[in-house]
Structure formats: structure tokens, C-alpha cells
């Protein structure tokens, strides 16, 4: 069974967990606090960031976007009836553009601030950056979130799924980040009905269940985190 | 002819320019100052970052890693005798890991600070972040650069090219970032002879010539920037 080094509230880890669950690939999960820079973890991946996938034959695949392309290289086409990377050239560009949008831009502007300030800093020793959340950064993240919600709304109004008419990796990237923000109770769900409906559809998929059951000790999830109808 | 929206000292743009030149794909270059958020540019790519490639048929491909996968999707295997994305599964992981290493980690830790502080801030109006460079950030970037040079040295001592025995996208990603830092005169070339020799080899390729001829108005390049033997 492959092993995934992850953190429960790392959005990139959640993205990979969702994908692996969609593909029905069972995985041993190992919780890694990347900021502690554990030597064995750095040996696996010198960048020292979650997620890192170690496949059955020992192949080490570090980072969400490298894992996506690895799965595309390895899995047969239409594996389990899914085609998360579309065949058409334009749809492929759009899928990859949106994976990048959420895993880099949304992360830099929203998820990274919220998860760092509200989650990671609680568990870190003061000498490596632990402490109370910086309220200014939380405000910045929440302000940055609003245009992103509008952008997801713009996409889901015009299309069934984010990158087009079919479900792709892009939906799972977006949903992974939103699910972290939702755990922290920071998604303004009332802002846009189409975003809510799109998220309800993806949240209702069986692959989402393990994430909705995740609980971080000492942190109660937001009020609608595990609700399919919210 | 395809069009590339780029900035001469944007490392991700340089990476794509090198790749296109290696493939012999002539491109119209349009200089874009992404921080000015020009409306027509944001219409092309809402993320508003260089590089953006517009292909002959109008296909818009935004961002270095999406451009790489687009080229891999479009070009015939062994195009121009090059195989910048290797065939072997492990070599593909390693190539993509290192593209990400330089385009994300090296960028966040080194190039972004140096280019933002020394270049972009000169051209920006004060109200959108222009001004004198922050010397503390320049010190951070230069300190962060040293372990990266050691890491490139570690790789090039064990291998002919960064990702293995053959030239890959990874070498161009690394060289693109180093060439920006070198323009600014900040690469400590004396630190590691193997790094210098690897860079000399890649810098001597014809694809590198246009970059070495680049001059940003008011900024003289570092003393060895255009020298092949330094």
C-alpha cells in the first residue's frame, strides 16, 4: 500500500487525498509536521513539504503537482471511469491553469495565512515561529478570499465544473483549499449560491468523507464543515 | 508566430524563452510589467503573471509549468533531437520535482526578493509598491542563495545534468533563475566549481545567447553576466 506523508489541514495534502480516494487507491497516511523538519522526512524530500507520496515500489513523489503528473503517467486512461485530466488540449491547459491557481495563488493569498496562523503556529515551539495568530494576517486572508469566491462563482455559472463540462483535478484542488478554510469557519457561503451548489456536489462524493471526518485536536471545525446540506 | 508575454528579468519568462529557443520555436516577445495589471493582459490570464504564451491559433497558455506540459502535449517526441522531459518514470519525477524546486522554492527564497527589490520596485509608482530596495530583504535573499548553490553542487557532482545523465527542463529552470541573479551580480561563483562548470555548459548553448544580450535600461549587468568563460 502506498504511503502519503500529509498534514490533515494542509490543502495540498487534502487535494492528493481526494484524488487518491477518487481513484480508489488506498493509502497509509502518516501525519507530518513539516515545519519541524524531521530528518527522515527531509531525506525523502529535501524541500520538506507535505504531501509526499511513497509508492509500493519505494518511488518517492513529492508535491501535489508532481503527484498529479505521476498519476497521469502511471494510471491507465479512464481509470475507474474517471478522466480527471481531460483529453482536449484546451481543457488540459484550463485544468492545469486552475490547479496552479488554487495550489499557488489561492494558497499564497488565502489558505497559507489561515492555516499557518490558526493551525501550525499552535503546535510550533516559539523558537521556530509558534505563537498566537497574527490578526492582521487573518484579516488579509479573509479579504483576499472574497474575490476568489467570486471567481469560482464566475466559473461555475458558466460551466458545470470548474474547468469545463466534466469533473477534473481542478475541482479537487479548489475543494481541498476551501475545505481547509471551511474547517476554520472562514468561508462566506452566503456570498454566492452557485459556489455553494458546486461545493455541495463535490462534497457529496464518497472521496470527500474521510476529510469531513478529520478532527484536529483542540480545534472544533466550523459549523457547516461536515454538513452536506448547508 | 507565437507571442510570449514576458519580462526580461522574470525568471519564469527566461525559463520559457530558453525552452522555446532550444526547440527552435521563434516567438514574438512582448514585454509586460505584470505589477501594472494592464487590463488586456488580465483578460488573457486573470492571474496576471508572466510568462503567458499565445500560440498561433490563439491558444493562451499561462505560467511556466503549464507551458511545459503544453509543449509536452503538443510536440512530437524527440523534437529537434531533444528529450527535455525524460521517458523514464523516475527521471520524469526528478525533472518535475526540480522544475518546481527552482520555480517555486528558489523563487520564493531568492529570485523573487532580488528581482522585486532591485528591478521591479524601480519601475513601479510608489502607490503600488515602488521605491528603494529593502536592504534586509536583499541580505535574506543572498543568505538563502548559498544553500541552493550547495544543493546544485551536490546534484552536479553526482550527475552530468541536474536531473540525471541527460539535459532536461530542470537545467533550464535552474539556469533561468541563476541568470537573473547573475544579471544582478549576486551569484557567488567561487563557492562551488562544479556549479560553475555546469552553468558554463548550459550558458554556452545557442539558446542562451538572446538572454545574455538582454539589457535592462539603467541597470548594468554583473561583471561576468555575458562571459562564457568566467
From TrEMBL, chains A, B:
Domain GST C-terminal per the UniProt entry, residue ranges: 88-222
Gene3D superfamilies: 1.20.1050.10, Glutaredoxin
One Pfam family this sequence matches: GST_C
Domain of life (superkingdom): Bacteria
Record InterPro entries: Glutathione-S-Trfase_C-like, Glutathione-S-Trfase_C_sf, Glutathione_S-Trfase, Glutathione_S-Trfase_N, GST_C, Thioredoxin-like_sf
Domain (GST N-terminal) ranges: 1-79
An example Gene Ontology biological process: glutathione metabolic process
Annotated keywords: Transferase
Example of a GO MF term: glutathione transferase activity
PROSITE patterns: GLUTAREDOXIN_2, GST_CTER, GST_NTER
Listed PANTHER family: GLUTATHIONE S TRANSFERASE D10, ISOFORM A-RELATED
Subunit field text: Homodimer.
Descriptive protein name: Glutathione S-transferase
Lineage: Bacteria, Pseudomonadati, Pseudomonadota, Alphaproteobacteria, Hyphomicrobiales
